[in-house]
Known about the structure:
Layout: H1 12-20, E1 44-52, H2 63-80, E2 84-95, H3 100-117, E3 120-129, E4 134-142, E5 159-163, H4 168-176, H5 184-191, H6 197-203, E6 209-212, H7 217-228, E7 231-235, H8 243-251, H9 257-261, E8 268-272, H10 277-287, E9 291-298, E10 302-306
Helix pairs in contact: 2-3, 2-6, 4-5, 6-10
Pathway: Cofactor biosynthesis; thiamine diphosphate biosynthesis; thiamine diphosphate from thiamine phosphate: step 1/1
EC number: 2.7.4.16
Enzyme class: transferase
Amino acid sequence: MPRAVAGKPVGEFDLIARYFAPLSGPEGLGLIDDAALLTARGDLVVTKDLLIEDVHFFPDDPADSVGHRALAVNLSDLAAKGARPFCYFLGLGLPKPIDPVWLDGFTDALFTFQQRFSIRLAGGDTTASPGPYMISVTAIGYAPGAGMIRRSGAREDDIVMVTGDLGAAALGLAIRRGAVEGDPILVQRYRYPEPRISVGQGLAGLASAAADISDGLLADLGHICAASGVGAVIDDGSLPVCDAARALIDRWPEGRACIWFGGDDYELVFTVPPAALDAVMRLSDRLCVPFHRIGRIVQGSGVTLVDRAGRPVQTEGMGYDHFASGMVAGKGGSDDG
């Protein structure tokens, strides 16, 4: 990424000019004003996530993975709403002394993400942190013409589906914490989540409800059920798992809980009326993204996991909750919902 000012930053405004002004779009006014100027061309979808060192990422995680994650988790929220990314605001707390190498990696990752997803920095704030790195991103997107996909639209007999595969990121976190040894690709899945932006946009007008899987499949589907006033029955045997995750679970059976509760997958779980299923599967083929049918919406409340014979699977856990114990995957999860 080009730097606007050469040399090591010596103060806040030098830091902004060198590292963040090159990321700004026209809305940011070159980051030389006290505010941004946004021109909206429709309804806006706004989301916010806060990342704190040693809570959402490790102190020795690569700086580029932190920058990638900071934008990815926000864009994943926009994806779940079917929104098209527009711009974002960045709040950054930096410990002293400022580490220019860390900032290079962090902002280079932001720049790369911006290029991939056509989003730009519109403003924010920087401050000195008395302790850890603290990163706050507020992302703004345009709602789809068909209307934002809400959590509250699931109805009885809708089909429950997920994109991609589950559990890899949580297993990567377990490897990262030293709980088990496994394929390094799982750690990469934890460090570098991929938001399903194109999928979300394609689901607008087709999906009745959706959420991104940040806190764990059962927790995030549970949010959909609670908002919609329904229940869900999920077939444990239909949950998709990648080869690296399956190999680890085969020799570490307790890792299977990562599929249910682990979080950090940032796949989409969504519900589809039966009449829309063919259109949804055509979307899967067009985007070359696998969609998996994993269950159905029923009367009642909560999420029930069953085996192939329809018997309830005994599980203990609830997904990630910032203010409660009982977490399976430890430091994962960054959703606010």
